[in-house]
Amino acid sequence: MHVVNHINRQPTEETRNVLVESARIARGNIKDLVMLNVKELDALIIPGGFGVAKNLCSWAVDGKDCTVSRPVEETIKAFCSDKKPIGLCCISPVLAAKIIPGCEITVGHDVECEKWPYAKTAEALKELGCKHVNKNVDEVHVDAKHKLVTTSAFMCNAPIHTIYDGIGKMVKEVLNLA
């Protein structure tokens, strides 16, 4: 989708390739998701951010009526099928809400305020048939049935060290389930 200048929060004329950007950020051996072999991995962690809401699915434009990228949907379903844990943070729990009926997730709190500016997301997730569990930014929710671990991350206006703590707990819980 469009690239945002995060200084002024406005779209730019620039275009980017998700795979190329991933390689730039990770500085590693990046492969296209369609090449992923679930049998070779113990768990899946999908970070959040606008990239999820605009590129992995159409949540940024369509909300609860979004579609999920086919390779992303197939990957999540494959991990579920193999009963392998999935960690999701920030906006990425919307992927589970669209793909895994009846799952339990958190994107933080469901009452909008200055601290929780995206709380309406929780209501949309409930409309998709998921159970949303209110959690603070430094907490996680574990859906043991589906092996999902979620945390709110930047869905909350909080100090970065607190967001870091929540994401760290998510990773730890995913590894515990692996």
Low-confidence stretches: none
Query: How much helicity do the residues have?
Result: 25-40%
Percentage of residues in DSSP E strands: 5-15%
SSE series: EEHEHHHEHEHEEEH
- The biggest beta sheet, please? 4 strands, mixed
Question: Helix count?
Answer: 7
Rg: 16 Å
Looking at the structure, the CATH topology is Rossmann fold
Q: Identify the strand order in the major beta sheet.
A: 3-4-8-7
The tally of beta strands, per DSSP, is 8
The CATH superfamily is known as Class I glutamine amidotransferase (GATase) domain
* CATH class term: Alpha Beta
Blueprint (SSEs and pairs):
Layout: E1 4-5, E2 10-11, H1 18-26, E3 44-46, H2 50-56, H3 59-62, H4 70-81, E4 86-89, H5 93-99, E5 104-105, H6 120-127, E6 131-132, E7 141-143, E8 148-151, H7 160-177
Report what the structure shows.
This protein starts with a strand and ends with a helix. Strand 7 (141-143) and strand 8 (148-151) form a beta hairpin. By secondary structure, the protein is α/β, with parallel strands linked by helices. It has a 4-stranded mixed beta sheet with strand order 3-4-8-7, sandwiched between helices. Strands 1-2 form a two-stranded antiparallel sheet. Strands 5-6 form a two-stranded parallel sheet. It has a single domain, classed as 3-Layer(aba) Sandwich (Rossmann fold), CATH 3.40.50. The protein has 7 helices and 8 strands. Helices cover 37% and strands 12% of the residues.
In short:
By secondary structure, the chain is an alpha/beta fold. The chain is 37% helix and 12% strand. The strands form 3 sheets. It has a 4-stranded mixed beta sheet with strand order 3-4-8-7, with helices on both faces. It has a two-stranded antiparallel sheet with strand order 1-2. A two-stranded parallel ribbon has the order 5-6.
